[in-house]
Amino acid sequence: MSDVAAPAFAPLSTGVSTGRKVKDRAFTAALWVCGGLAMLPLLFIATYVIERGVKALSLNFFLKSTGIPGQPGGGIAEAFVGTAIIVGIMTVIAVPLGILTAVYLSEYGRGWFAATVRFVAEILLSTPSIVAGAFIWAVLVVRLGAFSGFAAAIALCVLVWPIITRATEEVLRLVPQELREGALALGIPRWKVILRVVIPTAGAGIFTAVMLAMARGLGETAPVLLTALGNSFMSTNAFGPMDSLSLRVYTDAQSSYPLDQVQAWAGAFCLLLIVLGLSIGARVIAARQLRRMR
Amino acid sequence: MEVSGLNAWFGDHHVLRDVHMEAGEQTVTAIIGPSGCGKSTLIRCLNRMHEEVRGARVTGKVLFNGTDVYAPDTDPVEVRRRIGMVFQRPNPFPTMSVMENAVAGLKLGSRLSKSELRQRGEHDLRRAGLWGEVKDRLDQPGGRLSGGQQQRLCVARALAVEPEVLLMDEPASALDPSSTLRIEELVEELKDSVTVIIVTHNMQQAARIADWTTFMLNGEVVEADATEKIFTAPADQRTEDYVTGRFG
Q1: How far away is chain A from the Cα of B208, in angstroms, using its nearest Cα?
Q2: A187 → closest Cβ in B89, B105, B141
Q3: Least crowded by CB within 10 Å, which of A64, A109, A163, A276?
């Protein structure tokens, strides 16, 4: 071909020094151990709760309400119903409120008012849940003169609203500005741009935020104790005392009857399962939406 | 369209200084100039997109069919519907299919029936020269098309609301040469029905497609004239230096 010699490349050096190999292995191992350690607590909790809780699971456990103390055959049906109603009311109130606040903060919020709202959400986020419970006890339970599932739902809203707001604001901010501009440039009014372009684009993230918030509300005990009080009879009246799953675990665990204590483990197991289901569900649906967009 | 005494700021940064410009009906006007000269800002002032940026401010007049786009009682939504825009980077809506993207402006801005929407969608995808390539994948997400196809989808989407003016902000700068050529051909075809104002950093592109060319430098219009004049016998020394490639 041509008589110009191809430039010679120096060969790649072979053989990495032993010292470097050892260091590499050591760090890799250390990282694996750290990863394993992070999973350990969940693994322990899960096996412990499953081991102790599964025993007490029976059809009666789900279908019957509290029976005679110390006698087998009772269940915690009223706790399931109570949790469903309380978390249901919480979701219906907190989700729209949280999402609307997030839309305000991300799409409109400028100046001191937005800064204040963000600051308040931040403070609420780190408020101990018992404080929220005590507050709602003072303003709702005392005023209305009755413990109620509704008051519990409101107390949970106080805790969950900032979670939804902050998480949703974050994902709304991730929506590229170009999409908003592209939609505005078509002569679409801003509210429609937000509703039909911005929110759907952030949909998976918003959905995840809502699921995680629901999981949080599900597990809270202290504020429910102070507001819903607990009830060992089946009750669907949201304006009277109600039982909830987490509350029931708390009271059963304190009981002197071994049967009740086992029931507490079973309740804890159910809580774990529901929360896990919510988290996994959120992830699956989010992944599915992301795949559709690609 | 007629721009007079236009000034624009980003915060304290004065990006446009006393800009005057005209664009005749059914012509193609190119705005050229080096990076950072304010050509994108100028085009974004024409349909009031500039104010979408935090801290942005505008003074001056932009006359569209004789009415001031910035008059207090002018509705920016109507301005943007009648003065469409195609952006530098293709921005199809990721949650919508190809067809939904094409008719997004109509669907969210008018009350057309499903079959009417489809018809209009097909019509505008044809106008954007995209129909043949996408007619079998209308239900796929818009984001799955190639970059050049996405940009033509954005052109179709902009055309669907029947704007009288189409603003194009470096529409081909993110595209490969053959996609660029398609966009340029498209501009040629559109000229009969809409007024096109196109920002470009590519002088050959301006020379190929524009009837009129405006040369900008440091936020000011240096010279505006027929394209041929700008590229062969510019009046200003700075224009000559730029178009002959001496700077920029």
Answers
A1: 27
A2: B105
A3: A276
